[in-house]
Design brief:
The complex is a heterodimer of chains A (about 250) and B (about 160).
Chain A (H helix, E strand, L loop, with lengths): L2 H48 L2 E10 L2 E8 L5 E2 L7 E8 L2 E7 L10 E9 L2 E2 L15 E2 L3 E8 L6 E8 L5 E5 L5 E7 L5 E5 L9 E5 L8 E4 L5 E6 L7 E7 L1
Antiparallel strand pairs in A: 1-2, 2-9, 3-8, 4-5, 4-10, 6-7, 6-9, 10-11, 12-17, 13-16, 14-17, 15-16
Chain B lengths: L1 H48 L2 E8 L4 E8 L5 E2 H4 L3 E6 L4 E3 L7 E6 L6 E2 L4 E7 L7 E8 L5 E8 L2
Antiparallel strand pairs in B: 1-2, 2-8, 3-7, 4-5, 4-9, 6-8, 9-10
Classes of the chains: A alpha+beta (about 250), B alpha+beta (about 160).
Chain lengths: ~250, ~160
């Protein structure tokens, strides 16, 4: 075997080694990138399967403030540090117009549009045992499975009528609830000399039943209701009275 | 003997030159393949780390609709790149591509709970789609597609 053959063989061997090493490096680097992506996808799927919220109750505190109970019915703990990445979208009507607003989490807020946490419950009692939640100063702790948060939602709109709320976690797991009043009560006064009073209600639909009870002695003067619709109704008197006539009403 | 050494030397030089040229071609090609492969892997990894979710969509006026989109992935998307996203919007069965616009007809966005101009994990973006004419009552479709082809869609209705 001549010297040229030896050199050629050596070059071929070196080239093959170089090619193989480049291929291996490329494959390993590519697999690493893809493997990290697959791990992330798997983690995300696991979160989506195990994370769940549910609205379990609501109460109108005042015309602009709503209290909602939200239960963690999933199997994951949600840290309060991430609550500024939660979404709270509230839909309401005010002044005859519909509005939808994304509210920011602001534990310190008392005015403006915001949502915050009031209290936490576990097994029906206020407070939590695991990863206790602290709401003063910088919020801390975890919202653990089976714990219920009492959340306060506030909008500055004038006399809003809340319709719907959507809440979403950092991972996009969401829950929603509507607000349909089953009934509403109140009182109305027909001023002395007048024969009717218009009453506004927030039922959001035309009531199927309107009950009116006079608190004042109307003697033989008849009274009735008309103009019942999704916004209000009118209480009428057969003749005006010398004094104010007060009526209790209940609609459903 | 001397002529044999000379010819062996010439062949040796020829072989060395040929091998050098071949190895140069091979290595250049292999480097190109390696770079393409790494780029492809990076793009794939990037896409796998990108995830979005449309939380809700409603009409906020007769010609505007709001869409809330959440970044549920770990890919950090700068505002300048968000503008390169695609929004497809319209009545069910008649939707169309909507152009990005700073104002007027089209779509624009606002990062809601972000401390900078990047759209990061967990942060929500409010997209406002402004139509040229008033919405009519019915079912609507919206699809948001990121710069690297990750999308989410939602059907919602207007009116009622």
């Amino acid at each position: 075997m001549g010297q040229s053959t030896t050199v050629a063989t050596a070059f071929t061997a070196i080239m093959m080694i170089a090619v193989v090493s480049i291929l291996i490096t490329t494959a390993v680097s590519g697999f690493g990138i893809i493997a990290s992506g697959i791990t992330e996808q798997t983690d995300k799927t696991s979160i989506l399967v195990n994370e769940r919220l549910e609205f379990t109750g609501w109460k109108l505190v005042d015309p602009q403030t709503l209290r909602l109970n939200v239960s963690n019915v999933g199997e994951t703990s949600l840290t309060l540090r991430d609550f500024d990445k939660f979404d709270c979208i509230v839909m309401y009507t005010a002044g005859g117009a519909s509005s939808s607003e994304w509210l920011a989490f602001n534990q310190a807020a008392t005015t403006g549009d915001y949502w915050k946490i009031n209290r936490v419950f576990f097994n029906g009692a206020q407070g939590d045992e695991v990863n206790p939640i602290s709401l003063s100063g910088t919020v801390s702790g975890n919202w653990d499975p089976q714990e219920v948060l009492e959340v306060q939602v506030h909008v500055d709109a004038v006399d809003p009528s809340f319709r719907y709320v959507i809440m979403s976690t950092v991972n996009g797991v969401k829950a929603s609830t509507g607000f349909t009043l089953s009934h509403e009560t109140g009182s109305a006064t027909i001023s002395a000399g007048d024969t009717f009073v218009d009453v506004q209600h927030s039922l959001g639909r035309t009531p199927s039943n309107v009950q009116v009870t006079p608190r004042t002695d109307t003697s033989s003067t008849v009274f009735w209701v008309d103009g019942v619709d999704s916004d209000g109704f009118r209480v009428n008197l057969g003749a005006s009275l010398p004094g104010d006539a007060v009526f209790y009403w209940r609609i459903e | 003997m001397a002529s044999s050494i000379v010819s062996e030397g010439i062949v040796l030089i020829a072989v060395v030159v040929a091998a050098a040229m071949l190895s140069q071609v091979f290595l250049t090609t292999m480097t190109g393949i390696e770079q393409s492969s790494v780029t492809m892997s990076e793009r794939l990894g990037d896409k796998m780390k990108t995830s979005i979710k449309i939380i809700s969509a409603v009409n906020s006026s007769s010609t505007t609709a709001k869409v809330w989109v959440k970044n549920t992935g770990t890919n950090i998307i700068p505002s300048a790149v968000i503008e390169q996203s695609d929004v497809i919007f319209g009545r069910f069965g008649a939707y169309a591509y909507v152009d990005y616009t700073e104002a007027g007809v089209g779509w624009n966005f606002e990062l809601l709970n972000s401390e900078d101009t990047n759209w990061q994990n967990g942060e929500t973006m409010e997209i406002t789609v402004t139509a040229a004419s008033a919405f009519v009552k019915g079912d609507y479709y919206v699809c948001f597609n990121t710069f690297n082809g990750v999308d989410d869609e939602l059907y919602f209705s207007i009116g009622g």
